[in-house]
User: Fold these one by one.
Assistant:
Number 1:
Amino acid sequence: MIIQRLNSPKFVNCFSISMLKEFTNTNIVILLGYMGCGKSTVGAALAQKFNLLFEDLDDRIATAYDGSIPDLFLEKGEKGFRQIEHDLLLETLADRSPRVISLGGGTPCYHNNMEHILQATPHVFYLEGSPAELATRLFPFKSGRPLISHVKDQDELRLFVAKHLFERKTFYMQANHSISVDGKSVDELVLSIAELL
Ligand code: S3P
């Protein structure tokens, strides 16, 4: 009988551990990917759809340091920024409340961040954009992004993104799911993610 099985000490142990694992793991969704892939926009829309909270790691960093990300880059340098990003990522992941979290484009690629990300939840999504699409989206907003603010035109940006993406892809590809964003609307992307949850 199921009750007897549940009451056997061995079964109680493994049953409760797996239940706990399921409970703590299933309700956090993490979106990652290169700048301009839509992590924040899609994350906010996804959270709204599921009536979940939404958290953006860059916003958490900016709030904690009471300044913008470009200012933080200027003040601390990239190395200092990556340390802050790592510390606040760990703080974020320690909070187990159900929500959608969007990371910064570089978050998975520094320290051992990707290990922590993958341990936090099985719902890690890479929003994959082509260099051409990302360059088109990013060019008008490049001044707010320290890593690409120096780039002169869209062609140069496309080449920069292609090379940078190549270096980062090993990290991004470790996500549980990859979803192509080229030519897709926010609603379509939310639906694709929802189907995989
Ligand atoms: C960065 C991406 C940015 C921000 C910082 C560094 C990166 O976030 O964290 O400028 O290294 O790709 P978004 O991807 O949200 O623009």
Number 2:
Amino acid sequence: MRKPFVAGNWKMHGSKASILTLVTGLNAKSSEISGVDIAICPPTIYIDYTSHCLSADNIFIGGQNIAEEPDQGAFTGESSVEMLKDLGCQYVVLGHSERRTIYGESDSQIAQKVKVAMKAGVTPILCIGETLEERQSGVMESVIAAQLKAVLDVVGIAAFESVVIAYEPIWAIGTGVTASPAQAQEVHAFIRSELAVLDSTVAEKVIIQYGGSVKPNNAVELFSQPDIDGGLIGGASLDANDFMAICKAAGV
Ligand code: PEP
């Protein structure tokens, strides 16, 4: 039985004032939620401040990116996984489509970051997903399989016991267009079947989140699909009531 996991990706949003309001709201509602793991992923610069505002003991902190280099060094503007860990991060979002498309991160760079995170004991939330063109031209499954394979080739299937996968169709991220529960389920089942070819036990255990315009009004139906184990939430994670309603939809 997989425990659902909901993570909030704040992207490059927030200020000390808005984070205090948001986290105060999360703290107040956290005791209403059970049966789901929860994380919030603030911008790197606000991780420490967010931790100080957070009193809920069932909400964990994650980062949104790390350097490929495992150690500190002359890498201007970068933050290492050890630095995030030092600030209390247990998770890190890797391979988000915004990093892939805007910053040109390749499958092999993402695989390296997954390896570095795992070595440090920080759980990667590995984002994979197709564009609308890829879906419409019938190459969706091969795109997703290639994104997975790039990481599997570097860390191996056994490591996926400690990797969270976030299936995020790029056409559904921040657009208000959600994949239908059936569309999402179909891809989640495909991802699990790809892993099962290598190790059925790992495939059965791996948490696969859905991400892409999840809101309180569509979360219940999405999360009731058999292979959807919670969500990676962008816009709706910036509102305490919405985010907690989504967490509640994933829980018991
Ligand atoms: C995301 O950024 O990972 C995401 C899913 O965003 P949104 O929920 O806003 O679509």
